[in-house]
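FAQ

Q: What does a record look like?
A: Structure on top, sequence underneath. For example:
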């Protein structure tokens, strides 16, 4: 049995309905079934939490009982992209941005400035992740501004 077949079997066992109806319980069952599919190996394990989060965002977007603002949906989708990029980089061995002993705040700022000024193609996800790291460190770099 391949990964896809195991995932489908897990989704069916989790109670995947045959059709999407307009009530929350069916959508929740679908998200749970897809999560079971992911946990059974249906998606790459590095991206599984991100895939689950993206699916949850999509369910919220189609839920007529919730009034979800487009700003909130956009931030949810974008943050899922940020998480995916961070997970990919962790899998490649990168890390330590949150430890001042390993990574000085000036280094993070220089990476951000490099992303903005020296790259031929801007990557908004990289810019956002570097901005998040600087923000979360709680430090204010001073460059004489």
């Amino acid at each position: 049995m391949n990964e896809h077949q195991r995932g489908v079997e897990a989704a069916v066992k989790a109670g995947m309905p045959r059709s999407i109806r307009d009530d929350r319980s069916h959508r929740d069952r679908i998200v749970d079934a897809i999560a079971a599919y992911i946990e059974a190996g249906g998606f790459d394990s590095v991206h599984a939490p991100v895939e689950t989060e993206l699916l949850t965002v999509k369910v919220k977007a189609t839920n007529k009982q919730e009034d979800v603002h487009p700003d909130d949906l956009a931030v949810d989708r974008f943050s899922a992209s940020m998480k995916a990029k961070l997970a990919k980089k962790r899998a490649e061995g990168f890390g330590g941005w949150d430890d001042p002993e390993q990574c000085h705040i000036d280094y993070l700022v220089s990476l951000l400035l490099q992303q903005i000024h020296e790259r031929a193609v801007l990557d908004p996800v990289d810019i956002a992740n570097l901005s998040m790291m600087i923000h979360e460190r709680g430090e204010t770099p001073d460059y004489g501004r």
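Q: Is there anything notable about this one?
A: Helices lie at 3-13, 24-42, 48-62, 70-91, 105-117, 124-137.
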